[in-house]
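G., before I forget:
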Amino acid sequence: MAETSTLFTTLLMQGFAGMSLFSVLLLMALGLAIIFGQMGVINMAHGEFMTIGAYTTYIMSTFAEAHGFINQYFILALIAAFAIAFAAGYLLEYLLIRRLYKRPLDTLLATWGVSLVMQQAFREIFGAREVSPALPEWLTGSYQPAPGIDLPVSGLMVLVLMLVVTFGVWLMMYRSRWGIRVRATTQNRVIADAVGINTKRVDRITFALGCGLAGIAGAAFTTIASTGPTTGSLFIVDTFLVVVFGGAASLFGTIASAFTIAQAQSGLEFLMTGSMAKVITLVSVVLILMMRPEGLFSVKVRK
Amino acid sequence: MLEVQNLSVSYGQSSVIESLQLSIEKNETLAILGRNGMGKSTLLRALIGILPARTGKISLNGMELTKNESHERVARGLAYVPQGRGIFPSLTVEENIKTGLENAKDHRVPDEIYSLFPVLYEMRRRKGGNLSGGQQQQLAISRALVSNPSVLLLDEPTEGIQPSIIKDLAKALNEIKRLRKIAIVVSEQVLSFALDVADRILIIEKGRIVHENLRANVDAKKLSQYLSV
């Protein structure tokens, strides 16, 4: 009896670890899915926007510590992480991406170049060593719903944040005028412009929003691990995997895909080494994509 | 109202529209007839700004539009119903109509639209892609009308529509002109439809206007000779 309950709690906590990974992956993937799904832009620098969010949180925490509002800073850091990543994304679209819309491979190379430049810039500014923002007291510690079960509060917070942001993205895409513009542009850019939608503006703000979401992912990430110049780039492959596996331009697909990949990854890590877990996840995804190249949940449209 | 001077349009090296002159007045319907590949669609696509003009000038109410992007032309008073209707298939009927409301103050679908096309009200929560051809055409016209245009452009609205529905479409266009007193430009291959709606008829061949007449003076036999293969 005691053994079953130990196994159960272990599984539960392992599942919870998977949920935290799922949350960060989904926050990253939502932004990328919007950018890739709408504009067909493969943004290799998406991970660096996450890093921007993480460093923003670090700067805010240092500032908060010096000025004694460490307990309140995290909410402000989330807003700042979003705003700064949004602004940087807006600038990148304006300076570079919009000139490359009809050349997807060039966009891939150019954004990869941007990601290298950004990583080096982080190294120059923050140093090569990983940093961790000081966590407010309410984010440390853990919640014990039953003896033996120990859920870190930071993980719970990331979970809640993910739910709020996902709901916000859903509202924006399916219940707002902005969402109508974005979806119309995705389905038929030429006609969308010809019925009166400023599609270039839609592109710019959508790209910036996707980057802003990565910024939020970065802020969330600081509560579960430390940040270095290449933190974001470690996430980019997994994030693309989530988006492609879920089927671009499908919100539900992205959620399901992030959940499956994160749970598989962390569940397998429990049974074998991290690298083996990654190998098995990747191979499974490749096999499934061979059978369903359009992803798990692709949007079917009558052409 | 809408003035086109010396307009030329090319696809790559080949010229499709050659030095074309055109003008249309308020409360007038102009039908542009011609066989496939004669440049009807190209002309309308150049007017709304999907294709660039190689030479010439397009102006609406005295304002030049030649350098403007499509959405700016819509804001200035042009509206476009594309060939094949161009419905956004996974947007609902209501959302499709709302895409035309970019420059409106009130972002609700005006009652006028649903009284003109009652079937769209019944179908407002359905996906645009699930509508029949005739219903999609009503939807595309509604989406164009809500932007309050002074000139409405329709590219082959009867294409792929059942003959019985074509009559209703003609009725709707005449009703729209009566209510709104706007200018309507329609490209067509179906002569009977053109005669039902047009005040004036143009025939276009190889990108040039080869015949022009008021409907009252039209000799249907002579016109059909331009349209038969």
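The longest helix of chain B spans residues 163-180. The first strand of chain B starts at residue 2 and ends at 11.

More on Monday.
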